[in-house]
Amino acid sequence: MPKQFTDPEAIAEDIIRDVGTNLVVGLPLGLGKANHIVNALYARAAADRAINLTLFSALTLEKPRPSNLLERRFIAPVIERLFGGYPDLTYADALRAGALPPNVKVIEFFFLAGRWLHVPFAQQHYISANYTHASSYLLARGLNVVTQLVARRVVDGITRYSLSCNTDTTLDILRARTEGRASFRLVGEVNSELPFMPGAGDLPAGEFSAVLDSPATEFPLFAPPSEPITDTKYAIGLHAAGLVRDGGTLQIGIGQIGDALAQGLIVRHRDTAQFQATIQRLTPAAEQFFALETGPFEMGLYGVSEMLFEAFLGLIDAGILKREVDGVVLHGAFFLGPKSFYRALRDMTPEQIARIQMMPVSFTNELYGEEDLKRRARVDARFVNNAMMATLMGAVISDGLEDGQVVSGVGGQYNFVAQAFALQGARSILTVEATRQAGAKIQSNIRWSYGHETIPRHLRDVVVTEYGVADIRGKSDADVIAAMLQVTDSRFQGELARQAKDAGKLSKNFEIPAAYRENHPDRIAGALKPAREAGLLPSFPFGSDFTGAEQRLIPALQLLQDAQRSPRRLPGLLWQGLTRSPDAADRECLARLGLDRPATFSERAYRALVSAALARSRTG
After folding, report:
1. What is the secondary structure of 395-437 as a DSSP string?
2. CA–CA distance from 323 to each of 8, 320, 327, 384, 425 (Å)?
3. pLDDT per residue over 464-515, tens digit each?
4. Is 45 helix (H, G, I), strand (E, B) or coil?
């Protein structure tokens, strides 16, 4: 039985006494970090330079950091409401400040997107790794401690612990320990908010060396609120929803596009006519590169995804995720989401939760091991993942920049692309927003070339932007370029086509068909407007932790942020705000920001700008 502790410092001291002063500690990705134990180990190492501490991790979660007055006034109450009791990870604060002690190393293989750009130590100690390779790298570095947040359950007097949100790498290294290929201490920290997930991560107490379990160390789970789904993301999600076959298999990557895809599938299932009409408005071209699926889900889907999030539960509730594999409709390796998601998992009946099984990442992301069973289960698989950019010849950039700066990480993306080529009838669908804001300029995310790539062009398959679907698997370079130009924003099509022609990769007399030369954001907004007004595409399809006033403020603040990139727009907003009388709903929003009774010139200016942005965001 594990040693029981109620004090983090005591359990840290026990770990050091048992393992020694050379600590190689594995921390689960994301939610599953045992914050109090990790902080106690870090404090001991910071106080004693004889202790060498290496923390091997991924996806270190941090509270949002507002950067200006409006952000502070908007987000500070949200942070307090959602993260008020969440204990910060001390190593993250020190890492960001460049103040890690010389005897402490933090090594990660996946970053929270964009959070560690231009932080030298984090960038220098990042390991580029497929998710499925992380456990082998841990073992190769001499892993001797794993700390993990766990759920506890006592049945008939017997205590069991669930790995819950993070079976991903932990189950794989536990298997290595069972097979004699590793030796480490598994140390748990109990959190009563964590859902007890049955299955492979439901472990006997004897697997743990020590457990921290005390009301004093309980804390609210990290619960990032859902963000509103923009027209761009909804368009991408709807296009992707038309590629999913009834009776097939579904994997969805991290991000809002996953929510948009799930809602698109629900609309397709419940109102086929509206789904078809929306798709036709989005893609007016007579010819399609891909035969779209638009019917309801009679047989249903089976889900196998490294990440589980709230939208998957929406698909179960809608009767879409219902094709069972050994009694299970959804296999996952880790989860993260808003408070309502954790609550829904905790409140499920034993029969309901048994249909959702948490597995090692080697199960979800690979075919190796029980390959025949996996192949029979993963029929007509669609692996849908997000990317930052793509080239005209089909290479995809998802994790980093051409100067070497890492934005996030490869994670499981390459794994799923490889599966798509290994499984009969499977497709890899990589989603890219066609443009991005770069300062005051709009830039294309479809590039002629780029000095870094995550997925090489010899693995090109399906690329989806808000303007449509490019089916590029097995096509010649010229055909791929033509298909990619058709899903590119029309402001950039001409120059990109010229570059391809100058390189000799596209015929000099090639012309983009007229139907694809109207790829503009206004057309997308107009195409989605009927479905938006009918309530089919809500900004928060699976609920929100934001209040009503906050939900109204989000698009207004986004509009203001965009205006700041084009300063010539600000005087017009300021004048509009000074000359209009806000209605009751707007006054509630202004009060939420503390601008209902402005006391300074700065506050009066902000009040006017926000008032105008609220008005424009409603009509925009």
Report:
1. -EE-SB-TTS-BSS--BTHHHHHHHHHHSTT-EEEEE--SEEE
2. 44, 8, 9, 18, 17
3. 999 999 999 999 999 999 999 999 999 999 999 999 999 999 999 999 999 9
4. helix
Give the up-direction half-sphere exposure of residue 433: CA atoms within 13 A in the CB hemisphere: 16
* 249 three-class SS: strand
| Cα–Cα distance measured from residue 43 to residue 36, given in angstroms and rounded to the nearest whole number | 10
**Which stretches of 466-598 are assigned E, i.e. beta strand?**
468-471
CA dist., res. 241 & res. 423, Å (int): 20
Tens-digit pLDDT profile for residues 313-351:
999 999 999 999 999 999 999 999 999 999 999 999 999
Task: Give the DSSP letter string of 583-618.
Answer: -HHHHHHHHHTT-SS--SHHHHHHHHHHHHHHHHHH
- Tens-digit pLDDT profile for residues 264-320: 999 999 999 999 999 999 987 644 555 789 999 999 999 999 999 999 999 999 999
Residue 41 in contact with residue 15, Cβ under 8 Å? yes
Q: Which helix (H) or strand (E) holds 329?
A: none
231-241 vs 256-270: helix crossing angle, rounded to 10: 60
Mean pLDDT, the chain, as a whole number?
Answer: 94
121 token code pair: 């130590």
3-state secondary structure of 4: strand
Nearest residue to 375 via CA among 296, 304, 467:
304
Q: Closest Cα partner for 590 from 174, 581, 515?
A: 581
- The residue among 252, 308, 558 whose CA lies nearest residue 429 is 252
Measured distance CA(405)–CA(408) in Å, rounded = 9
Distance CA 467, CA 604 (A): 41
Rounded CA-CA distance 581/615 in Å is 10
Which CA distances in Å does 477 have to 433, 484, 549, 553? 22, 10, 50, 45
CA distance 510 to 478: 10
Long-range CB contacts for residues 470-473, cutoff 8 Å, separation at least 24: 470/289, 471/289, 471/290, 472/394, 473/427
Q: Express each pLDDT in 7-40 by its tens digit.
A: 999 999 999 999 999 999 999 999 999 999 999 9
22-26 vs 145-155, strand pairing mode: parallel
Q: Is 45 left (phi over 0), alpha (psi -120 to 50) or beta?
A: alpha
Direct distance between the N- and C-terminal alpha carbons of the chain, in angstroms, rounded to an integer: 62
Let me know how long the chain is.
620
How far apart (Å, rounded) are the C-alpha atoms in residues 357 and 332? 6
8 A C-beta contact, residue 308 and residue 321: no
